[in-house]
C-alpha cells in the first residue's frame, strides 16, 4: 500500500504527501499571509476533478483525503467509486498479505452494497478466509452485481468450506443480482442445484462462466447452463464435464457464437481412462462458432494421453504441463490444424526434431511456442524456426535443452534465429549457480 | 614515521591476489592479519555447521601459510566495532586495510569501522578484489540502476575493459620487511577456534567433502584447468548423472569465501582458451558461472531489501502461502519425492548441490508445488549451502521463483521426470536415500506407484519406511500456474501505465544497443495496449497469459479486469510493484531510503 502511494505521488507531483499535509494545515489554521495555494482553491475543486484524482488513489488514500473537507467527503461516497471492489481476506498465520479491514467491509455492506457491480474476493489458503468470504456474499442482498470472482491466492480454500454454506452464500448473489454476466468460481464446491438457480435468474445476461475444477458439478449440470443461457460466450471447465451434448448445445441456432472454451484435463489418479469427444461434435462447434478459441491445459501422465488427438481436434491453444510423448506431439502436428499456441513443459529423452518440423508444416496458424525440458537439436530447431519465420511472435526455449550438432553451435543459434524472426532473439537462460 | 598495519580478513581468505593485503605490507614496519569472529554469536546465527567448518578450515590454512612467512593469523573474538578500538590502542595501529565488500549490510558495517579508524587517526585502505567488475561501475554505466536481465548485464560488461590482472602472491621477502609481533601466548588468545568452542556439540566427524582453504582452492583450480585442457571443450558441460555428485574440481565455495580469487580463475581460463584456440578471444559464455555471480552482486549492491519480498523494488509481490509444516518437510528432505529429498539430504550433509538440483528444489518449494515464499528457501540455503553469497543466494531464489528478473513461468520442473531424465538409474537417490536403494529403476523416482509386493521386496514401504508424497504434483502445478497468471495479470495493469516497462524480458533483451530506445519502445508498446490490461500480455513473453487473452478481451466484464472508470487505475492495492522499477526499464536505480 505504501508502494502504491509512492507511485501516485510520483505520478502527480501536485499530490506529494508534503503538499497534502501543507494544505491540510492551511485549512485547519486558516490561510497564512502569503500562500501559493489559497485554501479555497482546493476546497472548490470541481466535483469531476476530485473524482478524477480519486480514481488514481488507493482506497486508503481516498479515505484519508475524504476527511479533508465536506466536499471531498461527498465525492468519496459517489457510487462510481464503489462499483468495483476487491475483498481481500487473509489470516496472519497463513498469508503475508493484509486483509480488507472489517469496519470497511461493514461500511460497504451498509452503505455501498447497491453500488457494487464488479466484485471479487481474494482469499488465502485458510478455510476461515473462505468462510468469511461466504459470510459477506450472503449479505449482498440489495445488489446488482454484474461480475463475481472468487479467487484463491494460495490453495483452493473454498473447497474446505462446507458445501451447504458455500452454496447458500453463492445463491444469495444468484437470486438477488438479476443481471450477472461474468462469474469466475474455479476450485469451489458449486453444485448442480446452484447452477440451476443461476440459470433461473440470470439466463438472459450470463456471458462468462469459469468453473474449472468444481468437482460437484456434473455434465448434466453444465449442460443445463448451456441449454438455457444463450448469450454464453466464454466457458472454462474440466474435461470430465465436456460432452458431445454440451458442444452441440453450445452450437444450437439460438446460441450466440462461443468465443472461448477452456478445458483443463487433469488426472486424479494415474492410469485414469478419459472419454473421447466425437469429431462431429467438434465440427458442429466450429461450424457454429468459426472463430472460437479452444484452450486445453493438460496435466496428465504420459500413458493417459491415448484418447486425445486421434482425430482432428479444433484446439487453438495447447499447454502440456507434464511430460508428453513424442508420439503425442506427432499426433498434434497431424490433427490440430487450428493450433495457434503450444507450450510443452517436458518430454522424454529423445529430441523433438521431426515433431516440431511437422507442427511447423501443418499448423499454419502457429504463432507462439514455448518449450521447457524438451531437447531439440540445433539443426532441428533452426529448421522449425525457418519454416515458421516471422509469424512466430513468441518463441521460448531453454538454452540448456538445445543440442549442438555438426551444423550449428550454440553460439550461432541466437543470430540465426533472429534473422528468420526479423527481430533479436535469445534462448531463455537459467542461472548457473 | 612508523607504520603499523592491520589487515582485516573477512571474505578474501587468501594470500594470492589480495591487493588490500599488499597495501598493508607496503612500507609497513609491522603487519598483523586479523579475522574477527564472535563465538558467542556463532551458534545464534543462521549458519550451519558445514559452513562454519569450511570457514575454520580456511582460517587454519591461512594461519599455516602465514606461519611459513614467519607471521600468524590473529583470530580476535568479539564484534568489529568493539574489537577495533581496543586493537588500535594496543597495537598502536596507523593503517587498516581490507577488501571492499559491495553488499549493503557490509557497506554499513565497513562505513562504521572506517569512521572509528578516523577517530583514532588510523588510515584506511580498501581494495576491490571479490568481484571481477565493480558493481558500482556497472550500475553507473546502466544509468544509475542495476541491469535487471542477464543479457543486459552481459552487454554492459562487454563494453568494459577486461577485469584487472591479479596481483602477486605475498612473498617471504615482503613479509620479512614488516614483522608481526607474535606474543608467546598467541595460541591462547588468537588461535582459530574449534567447532566446539563455537557451540557445536557434536560436530560431524571425518573429512568433509569440501575442505576449506586457499591451498585446497589452488589445487582444485589446477585440476579444473587441467581437465578443461584435456577435454579441450569449452562448451558448458551437459549434465550427466555424475554431475550431481560433488566434484574434486568444483570451485564455487572457494570463490564465495574468497579462498580463490575470481580474477585468477578468470585470467587462467582466458589464457587457456587462447592457447588452445589459437589466440581467438573467448566468448562471454566461457565465464558463465562467474558472470552470474557478478550479475547478482551488481543487482544487490544498492538494495538492502534484496533478500526479501516486502520493500524490495525489483521483487514481484506474490501471495505465498505460509506453511511451516510443509517448509520443514522440504528442508529436512521428507517430501516423499525421492529426487527432492535426495537433493536436500546432499545439501545438508555436504553443503553443495548441482545448479540444476538447486533449480529443482527451489521450483518445488515456490512456484512449482508448495507455493511457499522464496525467502524461506533462501534462509535454508543460507544455513546449509557453502557457496551462498548473500547476493547470489537471494538473487537466484528470486529468479527461480519468478519473483524478479522476469523470465518464463510456464514451465515447472517436475519432481519426478526431471531427475529421471538426468539420472535414469537413480544412483544419486540410492546414495543419499539408502532406504530406497533396492527399488527397481522404474519406481525409484515414484515409489508410491510401486505395487505393494515391490515395496515389500525392497524393504521400504511407502507411508511406513519412507513418506508418501506430500502433494499431488499434477494438481498443484495446475493451481500454481493459475496463481502465477493472476499475479502477472495484475502487473499488466501497471504496464498499461507504462510503468512496468521492464517486465517483458524480450523487450529488454531484444535491445542490441544501450540507448534510450528501450524506454521509447516499451512505452510505445504500453500505449497500444492501454485498452485492456490483459491484452498487454500479447506482446509479453509469457505464453500462458496469451492463452487467456481472447477471453478477457471479449468478455464485457471479465473478472480479472472489469471495466473501470479509468482503465489505468491499478487493480489491487495489495499487489504493488515498486514504481521505481516500473518506471524505468533499465533506468535509474531504486534508491532505497
What does it look like?
The complex is a heterodimer of chains A (433) and B (593). Chain A is of the alpha/beta class. Chain A is built from 17 helices and 14 strands. In chain A, 38% of the residues lie in helices and 17% in strands. Chain A has a twelve-stranded parallel sheet. Residues 1-35 of chain A have low confidence and may be disordered. In chain B, α4 packs parallel to α5 (104-119), α13 packs across α18 and α17 packs antiparallel against α18 (390-400). In chain B, strands 3-2-1-4-5 form a five-stranded parallel sheet, with helices on both faces. With 593 residues, chain B is mostly helical. In chain B, α5 links the parallel β4 and β5 (123-127). Chain B has 28 helices and five strands. Chain B has helices spanning 19-25, 39-42, 49-68, 80-90, 104-119, 135-141, 150-158, 172-177, 186-190, 214-231, 252-257, 262-276, 288-300, 324-331, 338-350, 355-368, 374-384, 390-400, 417-422, 427-432, 441-444, 452-457, 473-496, 505-509, 517-528, 543-547, 549-554, 579-584, and strands spanning 4-9, 30-37, 73-77, 95-99, 123-127. Chains A and B meet through α1, β1, β2, β3 and β4 of A and α13, α16, α18, α19 and α23 of B.
Amino acid at each position: 500500500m505504501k508502494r502504491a502511494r509512492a507511485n501516485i505521488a510520483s505520478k502527480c507531483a501536485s499530490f506529494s504527501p508534503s503538499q497534502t499535509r501543507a494544505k491540510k494545515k492551511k485549512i485547519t489554521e486558516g490561510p497564512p499571509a502569503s500562500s501559493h495555494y489559497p485554501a479555497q482553491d482546493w476546497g472548490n475543486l470541481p466535483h469531476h476533478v476530485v473524482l478524477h484524482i480519486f480514481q488514481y488513489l488507493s482506497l486508503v488514500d481516498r479515505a484519508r483525503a475524504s476527511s479533508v473537507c465536506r466536499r471531498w467527503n461527498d465525492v468519496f461516497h459517489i457510487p462510481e467509486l464503489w462499483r468495483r471492489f476487491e475483498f481481500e481476506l487473509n489470516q496472519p498465520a497463513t498469508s503475508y498479505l493484509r486483509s480488507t479491514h472489517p469496519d470497511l467491509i461493514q461500511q460497504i455492506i451498509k452503505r455501498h452494497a447497491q453500488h457494487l457491480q464488479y466484485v471479487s474476493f481474494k482469499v488465502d489458503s485458510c478455510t476461515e478466509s473462505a468462510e468469511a468470504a461466504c459470510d459477506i456474499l450472503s449479505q449482498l442482498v440489495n445488489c446488482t452485481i454484474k461480475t463475481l470472482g472468487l479467487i484463491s491466492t494460495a490453495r483452493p480454500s473454498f473447497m474446505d468450506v462446507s458445501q451447504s454454506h458455500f452454496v447458500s452464500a453463492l445463491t444469495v448473489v444468484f437470486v438477488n443480482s438479476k443481471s450477472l454476466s461474468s462469474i469466475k468460481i474455479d476450485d469451489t464446491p458449486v453444485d448442480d442445484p446452484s447452477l440451476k438457480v443461476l440459470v433461473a435468474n440470470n439466463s438472459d445476461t450470463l456471458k462468462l462462466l469459469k468453473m474449472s475444477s468444481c468437482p460437484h458439478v456434473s455434465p448434466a449440470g453444465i449442460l443445463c447452463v448451456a441449454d438455457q443461457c444463450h448469450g454464453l460466450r466464454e466457458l472454462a471447465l474440466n474435461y470430465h464435464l465436456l460432452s458431445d451434448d454440451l458442444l452441440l448445445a453450445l452450437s444450437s441456432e439460438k446460441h450466440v457464437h462461443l468465443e472461448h472454451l477452456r478445458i483443463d484435463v487433469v488426472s486424479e489418479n494415474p492410469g485414469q481412462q478419459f472419454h473421447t469427444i466425437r469429431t462431429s461434435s467438434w465440427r458442429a462447434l466450429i461450424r457454429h462458432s468459426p472463430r472460437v478459441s479452444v484452450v486445453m491445459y493438460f496435466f496428465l501422465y504420459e500413458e493417459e494421453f491415448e484418447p486425445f488427438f486421434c482425430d482432428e481436434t479444433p484446439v487453438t491453444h495447447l499447454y502440456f504441463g507434464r511430460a508428453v510423448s513424442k508420439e503425442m506431439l506427432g499426433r498434434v502436428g497431424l490433427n490440430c490444424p487450428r493450433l495457434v499456441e503450444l507450450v510443452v513443459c517436458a518430454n522424454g529423452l529423445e529430441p523433438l526434431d521431426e515433431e516440431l518440423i511437422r507442427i511447423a508444416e501443418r499448423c499454419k496458424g502457429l504463432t507462439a511456442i514455448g518449450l521447457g525440458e524438451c531437447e531439440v537439436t540445433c539443426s532441428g530447431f533452426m529448421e522449425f524456426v525457418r519454416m515458421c519465420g516471422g509469424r512466430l511472435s513468441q518463441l521460448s526455449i531453454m538454452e540448456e535443452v538445445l543440442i549442438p550438432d555438426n551444423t550449428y553451435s550454440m553460439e550461432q543459434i541466437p543470430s540465426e534465429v533472429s534473422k528468420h524472426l526479423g527481430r533479436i532473439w535469445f534462448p531463455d537462460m537459467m542461472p548457473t549457480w | 614515521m612508523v607504520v603499523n598495519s592491520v589487515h582485516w580478513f573477512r571474505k578474501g581468505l587468501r594470500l594470492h591476489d589480495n591487493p588490500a593485503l599488499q597495501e598493508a605490507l607496503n612500507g609497513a614496519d609491522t603487519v598483523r592479519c586479523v579475522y574477527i569472529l564472535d563465538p558467542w554469536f556463532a551458534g545464534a546465527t543462521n549458519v550451519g555447521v558445514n559452513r562454519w567448518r569450511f570457514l575454520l578450515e580456511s582460517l587454519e590454512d591461512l594461519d599455516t601459510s602465514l606461519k611459513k612467512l614467519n607471521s600468524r593469523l590473529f583470530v580476535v573474538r568479539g564484534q568489529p566495532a568493539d574489537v577495533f578500538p581496543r586493537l588500535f590502542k594496543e597495537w598502536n595501529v596507523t593503517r587498516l586495510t581490507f577488501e571492499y565488500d559491495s553488499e549493503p549490510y557490509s557497506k554499513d558495517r565497513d562505513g562504521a569501522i572506517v569512521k572509528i579508524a578516523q577517530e583514532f587517526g588510523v588510515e584506511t585502505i580498501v581494495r576491490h578484489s571479490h568481484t571481477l567488475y565493480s558493481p558500482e561501475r556497472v550500475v553507473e554505466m546502466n544509468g544509475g540502476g542495476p541491469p535487471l536481465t542477464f543479457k543486459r548485464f552481459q552487454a554492459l560488461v562487454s563494453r568494459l575493459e577486461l577485469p584487472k590482472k591479479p596481483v602477486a602472491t605475498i612473498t617471504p621477502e615482503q613479509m620479512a620487511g614488516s614483522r608481526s609481533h607474535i606474543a608467546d601466548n598467541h595460541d591462547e588468545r588468537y588461535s582459530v577456534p574449534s567447532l566446539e568452542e563455537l557451540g557445536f556439540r557434536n560436530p560431524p566427524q571425518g573429512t568433509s567433502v569440501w575442505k576449506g582453504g586457499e591451498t585446497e582452492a589452488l589445487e582444485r583450480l589446477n585440476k579444473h584447468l587441467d581437465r578443461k585442457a584435456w577435454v579441450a571443450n569449452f562448451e558448458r558441460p551437459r549434465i550427466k548423472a555424475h554431475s550431481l555428485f560433488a566434484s574434486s574440481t568444483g570451485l564455487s565455495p572457494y570463490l564465495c569465501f574468497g579462498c580463490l580469487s575470481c580474477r585468477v580463475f578468470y585470467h587462467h581460463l582466458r589464457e587457456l582458451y587462447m592457447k588452445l584456440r589459437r589466440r581467438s578471444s573467448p566468448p562471454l559464455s566461457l565465464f558463465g558461472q562467474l558472470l552470474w555471480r557478478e550479475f547478482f552482486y551488481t543487482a544487490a549492491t544498492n538494495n538492502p531489501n534484496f533478500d526479501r519480498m516486502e520493500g524490495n523494488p525489483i521483487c514481484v509481490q506474490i501471495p505465498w502461502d505460509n506453511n511451516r509444516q510443509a517448509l520443514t518437510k522440504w528442508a529436512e528432505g521428507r517430501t516423499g519425492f525421492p529426487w527432492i529429498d535426495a537433493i536436500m539430504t546432499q545439501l545438508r550433509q555436504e553443503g553443495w548441490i548441482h545448479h540444476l538440483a538447486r533449480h529443482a528444489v527451489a521450483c518445488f518449494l515456490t512456484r512449482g508445488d508448495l507455493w511457499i515464499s522464496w525467502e524461506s528457501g533462501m534462509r535454508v540455503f543460507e544455513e546449509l549451502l557453502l557457496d551462498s553469497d548473500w547476493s547470489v543466494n537471494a538473487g537466484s531464489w528470486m529468479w527461480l521463483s519468478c519473483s524478479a528478473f522476469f523470465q518464463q513461468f510456464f514451465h515447472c520442473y517436475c519432481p519426478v521426470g526431471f531427475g529421471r531424465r538426468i539420472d535414469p538409474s537413480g544412483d544419486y537417490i540410492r546414495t543419499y536415500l539408502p532406504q530406497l536403494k533396492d527399488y527397481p529403476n522404474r519406481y525409484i523416482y515414484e515409489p508410491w506407484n510401486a505395487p505393494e509386493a515391490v515395496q515389500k521386496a525392497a524393504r521400504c514401504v511407502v507411508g511406513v519406511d519412507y513418506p508418501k508424497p506430500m502433494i499431488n504434483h499434477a494438481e498443484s502445478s495446475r493451481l500454481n500456474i493459475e496463481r502465477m497468471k493472476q499475479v502477472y495479470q495484475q502487473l499488466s495493469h501497471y504496464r498499461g501505465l507504462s510503468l512496468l516497462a521492464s517486465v517483458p524480458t524480450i523487450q529488454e533483451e531484444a535491445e542490441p544497443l544501450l540507448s534510450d530506445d528501450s524506454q521509447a519502445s516499451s512505452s510505445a508498446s504500453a500505449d497500444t495496449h492501454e485498452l485492456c490490461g490483459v491484452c498487454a500480455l500479447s506482446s509479453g513473453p509469457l505464453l500462458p497469459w496469451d492463452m487467456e487473452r481472447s477471453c478477457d478481451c471479449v468478455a464485457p466484464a471479465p473478472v480479472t479486469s472489469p471495466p473501470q472508470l479509468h482503465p489505468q487505475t491499478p487493480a489491487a492495492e495489495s499487489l504493488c510493484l515498486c514504481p521505481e522499477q516500473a518506471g524505468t526499464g533499465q533506468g535509474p536505480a531504486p534508491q532505497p531510503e
